[in-house]
Amino acid sequence: MSRKILHGVIGVLALLGGMLGLALADARGARAAEGAPYRIFMILFRGETEAERGFRDYLADHAMPAVITVRDLDHDLSRLPAVIAEAKALKPDLIYTWGTGIAQGVIGAYDQTDTSATIGDIPVLFDMVTSPVDARLVREMGPSGRNITGVSHIPPLESQIRAMQVYRTLTRLGIIYNPIEQNSASMVTKLRTLCDAQGIDLVAEPVPLDATGHPRADVLPDLVAKVAAREPQFLYIGPDTFIGENRDVLTREAMRHQIPVFTGTELEIRESNAMVGLVATYYALGKLAGYKAEQILVDKVPVGTIPVETLKRFSYIVKMSVARQLELYPPMALLDYAELIP
Amino acid sequence: MGERARNPVLRLFAFTTLLLTLTMGLAGFYAFGVSQRYLLPELDLKARTVGVAIADKVALAQAQAIPFDRFVGMDEYLDSVRQAQPDIDYLGITDTRGVLLYHAGLDQDDLRTLFGEENARGAPAWEDDDPDDEGGWALWLSQASLALSGPPVRETPPRGGYYDTQVPLVSQGQMVGTLHIGVSVGFYKEEIARQATDMIIAVVIALLITFELLLATTTLALSGPLDTLVSTLRLSTQGVFSRPLAGSAREIDRLAHRAGVVVDALLDALATLKARLIALQERHPERQARLLAIDQGLDEAVRPVDPDKRPVDLASVFIGARLGAFLFVLAEEITRPFMPVFIRGVAESSGWGQSDLIMGLPMSMFLLVVALSMPGVASASERLGRRRTFIAGAVLSSVGLVGAALGGGFVALLLWRALSGLGYAMTFVACQGHVLDHADPQQRARGVALFVGGITAADICGPAIGGMLATRLGFEAVLGIGGALAAGAALLGVWALRGQGALRPAPKAPRGTMFKLLGNGRFVVLLLCTAVPAKLLLSGALFFLVPLIATQEGASAGEVGRLVMVYGLASFLLATPFARQADRWGLHGLAVGVGALIAGLGLIPMVFDAGMPGVILAVVGLGVGQALSISPQLALVMRVCEDEVTRYGQAPVVGLYRLAERLGGALGPVGASALAAVLGYGGAMATLGAGAVVAAVVFCVVFLILGARPHPDDQIDDEEPLIRPEASS
Q: Where is the Major facilitator superfamily (MFS) profile domain (chain B) (predicted)?
């Protein structure tokens, strides 16, 4: 008797499930049939990176038909207004941007009054923005309330400090930064608060400016030597464009002084000689952006309700060649989860 | 003469028991010996598995060209491994020259001393130890068993009180060092003691079960029919001739048949004689007076049997009910130690895991179905017949258990448990009815006691054996075994519940009697403050929370089973003496109050995260407290409801009392799980205990003020089954 009821219940549930599945499949089919593939307009700073590969892979894996128009500024932000004008004329379904500068140009600050040069009516999905809050794209992380959403790539500073402490005891931390970069300056302020709270001595050296008001790359070796003299356990490289551009000089000099470099961004460790990094990989970030694109285009979730966020999990990377050279070997427990690269 | 007639069977029984005890004891002992032979290699293997993981890590570091003596954080890593493997006492890594590089568990100097003794082969450490220390008996047993099963497969003497397992650390085909994994001799001894306890319990339980089966088979096949035959023959010596009932064993059947032929021949001869007497009377009317006297003489000497007094094989009836009860209760009891844990697993895997609130539902469902279906099932069994009810019930139980084993999610589990509950109610009612149908009021007490004895035996054996099986085979397999046992009960029921008894329907109280009973304030207080809390504690704390907490504390299902068994043992050993004392002193109220207080108080330490000792205390408190209060409780009910019993009979009073108990039982698991959702398991346990204490205090205060209405004679006559409702699960 009970068995019959049970079978009945299971039968009804299966039927309902089947109907739901059909309905969903139908809905997706209807969208695809609705018309042409989704039109995505991509504005990039330095060509396609791993992030775009992740983005494209996500769309392909989820069978989202899309035509992607790519505009590469090739390191030249002055080309942006023309590209924005083109986007306005094309009226794509979604605009994808790479990096802080482009995002600022396309979206504008949240409290900007003149919106004539920015895009408001087309959903914008930004990727690879260091700090959307400091860049004034959004007031806070989470849903923007505007026609934008996006992905940030820097792990929280707290996590980065913890990551350094996992490797070795941290009592002094060095940092060299570009004082005229808004991102960097505010990051140093935050870092100082965190270090003070944990009794870590922060040695922060701003890069001096030349007569034209640009930071001087030529003094970097001296700055590293100055910081190294204080014997910090790590020299930290944060999301700083100027330092990022000079990463090779910085890491080389640090190694010469037997100071390991810790980084929060992927390039400094993969393509230069930082020893340890807690980073969001570009590929994973691109996939997260792809997921948001699906929410916007397929699921029709209102863009302003989709949170601006970063990854929940980051990669802990150890560059073994540097570790061996400095004879600073990773702790055994790290071997379980760290990615060891040559 | 009666004793003598039983003697051969008794002697046979005693001899078989002795033989069984010896063979099973020896078999257990031998099995223990075999496990002892392989114990050390097994421990070694376990240590080696851990060692391989560490060696892999070392190889990984070496592959990254990290120098062997420059590992960072190795001590901390080794310590983390040791934390996860509490049976490992130390871990140490030496290089090829034997220099200690990394270590955890013991400090550097101790390990250096230990490894320095590399070449000094010592005697087994326990020989230097104080022989009186813990585990001594188990070690002695272990040594003795080895004498029987052969020498240990490996005899590595411990060094400095530790067994040291060594794992080579290899990098690129070259040995770079050695990992030492130390397990203390103390742990080894504990393991031996654990296995010895397991073995003893297994043998004892196997004996108990064999004894049950032996008793049943002997009675059903041999002594029951034989006794009945003897009674029939004895009647014929008094001139009452009746054909003996057919027995079951072929020889007894043949004997009964022969006796029957003789009886028939005698009765035929008698008839012929009487016919001749009548013929003579007709031919010789003058001798009528004498002939009449002869006829009367014949009638006096040889009487046909009064159908009501025809000897019945009561022993077989009672033992049949006992066997049935034993098997169907055993089928449920073996799931006892893991049922809540199993339910939690099912809930988690079907996505209900977040809510502790619903964990109690399946167990409560079972108990609720038992409580509510009893009255309906009782009248159905009168129509259907006891045997058919029993078989149907056992089959339902079996299907329910097997269904639960096969899975299908939380909702399905609820339905399977409900089905088993219905089966349980049916089998219980059928066994009870079987006893009552056959027995006269004078014999009922004995029948009921035998029947309850079967249940108690299952209560004690079930959890322990179920736990042991679950540890080795897994929960689903034990549920399946439970299903097989219930199916076995159904098969046995065909044979064991034989015999056509006069159907004696339970007296039906007029509708509304129960409500009238609720007008008795004392009775209501008794129900609410003792009957309901007692069963609520039993199902909520012992059956639901104890397995969950003990499992959380790291106990295996086997250990949980032994823990639950303590309750059964306590009531088996203490209930009768306690009841006797309470009867003797007429202190039923006191016994009930004090028992309820003890049962509740034992749970309260759980609020302080008392761990395993707290759980053990709770179970012992519950066992002792309830052993003290359960029997006097019914006596007190009778005393409190004296007027009602006179007016409506005992049935509705006992019926209401049992219903209250069963509903309390059904409330237990859901109540406990609801509390656990808010307070955690320990908090829930303590809260249940506190609630029980409050109820007990209210009961005491009320009865101190109102009195229990003393009565000169509180012996109850057996109008209605005074069967302990074992329904639980």
A: 317-709
